[in-house]
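Design request, tokens follow.
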């Protein structure tokens, strides 16, 4: 006689809870997004999951924040296309100050389209807008490692 096996399939809600648990952290993130509502929402999302967030509406003020911050900044989370300077231009300048910083771009454009038009280096880490809470948190965790 064959024994009956019990399988537990997670509900969507259980999957989201699991993603939140594994995708949280305590690292410091420099968030640069020129769309204020999206910047504030993303900041809240990250902070609710344990991250320390420094936020900026543009590249110039992001560089000032980074230069004046004494602790580590583990991740730059930046929009690719902004008015004053692109995300990749900001990342290049920021890496001169903090070579160890990891970079994750966010954009409403696909990665291939961005790379073809010189918006970001090929193979750059990208989360596409609009993103879900889980997609953002998992992508941040992937880029940070651990």
């Amino acid at each position: 006689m064959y024994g009956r096996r019990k399988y537990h399939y997670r509900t969507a809600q259980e999957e989201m809870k699991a993603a939140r648990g594994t995708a949280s952290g305590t690292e410091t993130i420099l968030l640069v997004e020129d769309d204020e509502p999206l910047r504030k929402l993303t900041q809240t999302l990250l902070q609710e999951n344990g991250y320390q967030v420094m936020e900026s509406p543009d590249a110039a003020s992001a560089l000032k924040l980074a230069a004046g911050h004494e602790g580590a900044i583990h991740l730059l989370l930046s929009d690719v296309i902004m008015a004053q300077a692109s995300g990749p231009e900001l990342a290049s300048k920021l890496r001169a100050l903090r070579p160890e910083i990891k970079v994750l771009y966010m954009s409403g454009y696909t990665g291939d389209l961005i790379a073809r038009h010189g918006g970001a280096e090929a193979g750059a880490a990208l989360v596409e807008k609009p993103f879900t809470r889980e997609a953002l948190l998992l992508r941040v965790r992937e880029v940070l490692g651990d």
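Comment from the thread starter after seeing the answer: thanks! The chain has six helices and five strands.
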